[in-house]
Specification:
Layout lengths: L7 H13 L3 E5 L1 H5 L12 H4 L1 H6 L2 H6 L1 H12 L10 H11 L3 E6 L5 H5 L6 E3 L2 E8 L5 E3 H9 L14 E5 L8 H12 L3 E5 L11 H7 L3 E5 L12 E3 L3 H11 L1
Parallel strand pairs: 1-2, 1-7, 2-3, 7-8, 8-9
Antiparallel strand pairs: 4-5, 4-6
The chain binds zinc ion.
The site of zinc ion has 8 residues, from loops.
Length: about 260
Amino acid sequence: MSEEPITQSSLEEIASWLRAAGRVVALTGAGVSTESGIPDFRGPQGVWTKNPRAERLSSLQHYLADKELRIEAWRARLAHPAWAATPNAGHRALAELERKGKLTTLVTQNIDGLHQLAGTSAGAIIEIHGTMREVVCMDCGERADMNRALDRVRSGEEDPDCRTCGGILKSATISFGQSLIAEDLERARIAAESCDVFIAAGTSLTVYPVAHLPNAALSAGARLVILNNEPTPYDRLADAVVNEPLAKVLPRLAALA
Ligand SMILES: [Zn+2]
């Protein structure tokens, strides 16, 4: 792992690319939210990696088949750290880059909704793994506010069902065994292919098909900037790699851009 210290000159160089860019696209992963107190579920030290039972909670097949598992999943949703979390300086810096007219699309692997709470507009964001702030009925497809379903759990319903059709409700996230939304993926690909600078922040770039996006951007001639606390498979192809805390790096870049 490279431990090159962050230098003002390297940040200044990245910022100069941002200033010259017409369109900047960012891809964010768990690393952007860890400083808001939300653990990385899939990483080497992740909750799921250390507890296979927790991963079962996120398998669509098991979820649909096993009521006990759904009861456990609702308890886990109630206790999720995201409900008490607030956006950090990294989230706010990405919102600032949009306000400055630089960031046109923010693709996030996170389901916590913190980018929107920080001020990123709904039209600019693609939540490629869905959102935990809504529920979806697995039978009729109706979506509703997660808070209302959680209120039902708090008042004693162990596995609240769809109010419209009685079907199984699940958080509107992409579970294991579920495909990504094709239109979201297509929008993300088009954004990557039409940007001047692609920033990958807090993502290990190992979860496909999202991990193809930097390649799409590079092939179309964009510069690739990687901000992450550990190496990624794309580091050798990147124009700049910064291994420093995102809540420090992103605000400095947003201020200089
Ligand atoms: Zn329904």
